[in-house]
Amino acid sequence: MIDRHRAWTLFKRVLTVAFISIVLVLLVTQLRDVDWGEVRASLGRYQAPVLLLAFALAAASHALYGLFDQIGRVYTGHRLARLRVARIAFVSYAFNLNMGAMIGGVGFRYRLYSRYGLDGATITRVMGLSVAANWLGYLVVGGTVFAMREIALPAGWEIGTAGLQWIGFAMLAAAAGYLAACGLSRRRSWTVRGHEIVLPSLRMALLQVLISSLNWMLIAALIHVLLFGQVSYLTVLAVFLISAIAGVLAHIPAGLGVIELVFVTLLGHLLAPSELIAALFAYRAVYYLAPLALALFVYLHLETRAKAHAQ
After folding, report:
1. Are residues 203 and 179 in contact, defined by beta-carbon separation less than 8 angstroms?
2. Within 10 Å of residue 306's Cβ, how many Cβ atoms?
3. Residue 124: count of CB within 10 angstroms of its CB
4. CB contact at 8 A, 90 and 298
5. What is the pLDDT of residues 68-108, one digit of tens each?
6. How far apart are alpha carbons 276 and 37 in whole angstroms?
7. CA 274 to CA 281: how far, in whole Å?
8. How many degrees, rounded to 5, is the angle at CA 241 between CA 265 and CA 23?
């Protein structure tokens, strides 16, 4: 049993290294001809109205993501103040975006929630509900967009546009299955490796779908704005959704390089790579780095208040 576990762990590591290596090779191939002077020029074209709209969309998205933990508050019945929950969710999400799920989504949640008195089981349920909500929205939005064949994949991609459409149908079926289970299942809880999994109500599940779907669409809208609307919104949404799953598979914090690779590969025939790279640099600054800077101050505030709370 131990040998099998070690073999599986080694296999996953080798697979991850191989995937990252392929991504790096493709990234170098795609970006070696980029005119970086033009990238700087493209960044200089952003005016205040565009940036203000971009920051507004980013703020709305971060606020929506924070609602997952508010749903978790109702789901678990814990009594931490809503404002404190919002701050913890914001800090966790900002660090999750920039440093990966294990540091942000898991590490900061456990650190901060436990500092304010929540037990490990409750924190796990809050976190699990948040992760489920995020990917439930992905299934619905991605499934719809892929089923509509809004993005034409480059020639040579084995999956093909028709294959992506069938994946879209499967994603919608999975989301429908989750909603059906929440609404119709008589058994409401299971214990898996010592952790209790409790199905939320159908009303709560529908709220998860609504909030998460809006969040994914808001992020794509932000990128669409930074591209000055030169590519249709649905196309940007489809490419963003593909880049999101590619970033997860690559296990690279913030999907660094992966998102850029996907956008250049799929939209390089519509826009110059320099314009795409500039838009994605601006996107990272607005959606990743600016919130991270604010999250650092919020985190320090939470730690200070936690000390006072413990005394």
Report:
1. no
2. 17
3. 20
4. yes
5. 999 999 999 999 999 999 999 999 999 999 988 888 888 89
6. 13
7. 10
8. 45
Amino acid at 281: F
- Calculate the alpha carbon distances from 236 to 16, 43, 145, 226 in Å: 27, 19, 10, 11
Question: CB–CB of 126/114 below 8 Å?
Answer: no
Would you tell me how many other CB atoms lie within 10 Å of the CB of residue 10? Answer: 10
Distance between CA atoms of 82 and 86, rounded to whole angstroms? 6
87: helix, strand or coil: helix
- Cβ burial 14-35 (10 Å sphere, 16+ → b, else e): eeeeebbeebeebbeebbeebe
Q: What is the pLDDT of residues 141-161, one digit of tens each?
A: 999 999 988 776 666 565 667
Nearest to 92 by CA among 70, 237, 100: 100
Alpha helices in 185-289 (DSSP H): 202-226, 233-250, 258-267, 273-284
Going from N- to C-terminal start, the domains of the chain cover: 47-310
User: Cα–Cα distances in Å, from 274 out to 30, 40, 128, 174, 235?
Assistant: 11, 9, 39, 38, 18
Q: Please name which of 263, 243, 269, 267 lies closest in space to residue 254, comparing C-alpha atoms.
A: 243
Could you tell me the two tokens for 127?
């976190």
Q: Is the pTM of this model over 0.85?
A: yes
